[in-house]
Amino acid sequence: MAKKKALCRTASGAFVRNLGWKRSAGRYATHKFHLGRDEAKATLANLRLEQLCAEVGRRWERENGFALHPTDRPVWDEVTLAVADAVRNGEPVARVPLPFPLSAMVRESPLIGDWLDRLQTDITVVKVELLDREAGEKADETIQTQGQRLVDLGRRMLHRKAGGETLHAALAAYGRWLAAKFLDTEKRGTPWGRTKERHVSFLRRSLPDGPLAALDAHRVEELIDVLRLRPAVDAGRPASVAWTRNVIKQFRHFLQWLDRSPEFAWKRPADLELGQVRIPQTPTEKGGRLAPRRCRRIARRSCGRFGSTPPRSSGC
Predict the structure, then answer these.
(1) 202 in a domain, yes or no?
(2) Residues 161-177: pLDDT tens digits?
(3) N or C of the chain: less Cβ packing under 10 Å?
(4) Per-residue model confidence as pLDDT tens digits over 277-302
């Protein structure tokens, strides 16, 4: 869009800026923005208007070929001028009218929501909302509904691409990878590798199977909850705290492997955050056995109270 680089100052002391084109009576003319008398505010408004002008130009390049009345250059229209007025006045939100033919449609039309979403994506210099607040609320609802529909569609497509891949099948493949990874010089499994294989076997016994396409961030958190509550091992006893901690580490490593594995279509969810996990303990485990140093301190306090000296070998 046409622009003159510098601010101009009128005889009355006000700042103005000629920037972009407007169409009037079939002719093009540069548009003049009045930016007030404060030089600092006018300079800031000028910079933001230049950014807006560039964004309007990129929007025109994409949409001009489909417009009802195409132009041979980017021009300010009622929508972009409403945004420009908000920018030059320093307003935080630009409220814009609906252009024709959208203005003639019912507020629930999905075309309005789609148009507003693209406008808000194109214009970043200021927040954009509809002048008609009710139409804006309907547009937001439409955008959210369409977004959820696309998310659901994407999940179904990933599930089809995965070909019915399941968690247990992936764990089995991961176990085979571990068996081939941890070998000694004689190509035999190492003790550490066999421990990891036992971890994987425990994961397969403890975690319910399901499609990998359903393994989103929420489902991963549910599976970690299953593990941290210490599933039963032999004779119905809960797994030890140390074993549970190592199994959870193994499950997290499995997710990293699965994300990189070319055998499976699953990818780590963008919203998955793996923080610290609290493993509950039984009352007996919480009580535990007092450390010898603590026992000696208790013995000294007790003996001092009754006027005797504890033996040096005092301990638990």
Answers:
(1) yes
(2) 555 689 999 999 999 99
(3) C
(4) 999 988 888 876 545 555 556 555 55
Closest CA to 202 of 222, 180, 174, 221: 174
Are residues 124 and 177 located together in one domain of the fold? no
Same domain, 58 and 175: no
Amino acid letter, 302: S
Helix (H) / strand (E) element for 42: namely helix 39-63
Both 149 and 180 in one domain: the answer is no
Same domain, 38 and 93: yes
Q: Is residue 221 part of a domain?
A: yes
Tens of pLDDT, residues 69-111? 888 899 999 999 999 999 999 999 999 998 888 888 877 788 8
Q: Classify residue 199: in a domain, yes or no.
A: yes
Summarize the confidence of residues 192-206 as an average pLDDT: 92
155 shares its domain with 222: no
Contact criterion met (CB below 8 Å) for 49 and 87 = yes
Structure tokens at 309: 């000296």
Range of the domain at 238: 171-287
Cis omega (within 30 of 0) on the bond before 101? yes
* Residue 247: alpha-carbon gap to chain centroid: 27
Q: What is the pLDDT of residues 117-137, one digit of tens each?
A: 899 999 999 999 998 888 778
Whats the size of the chain, residue-wise?
316
- Judge contact between 118 and 102, C-beta under 8 A: no
Q: How far is CA 86 from the centre of its chain?
A: 30
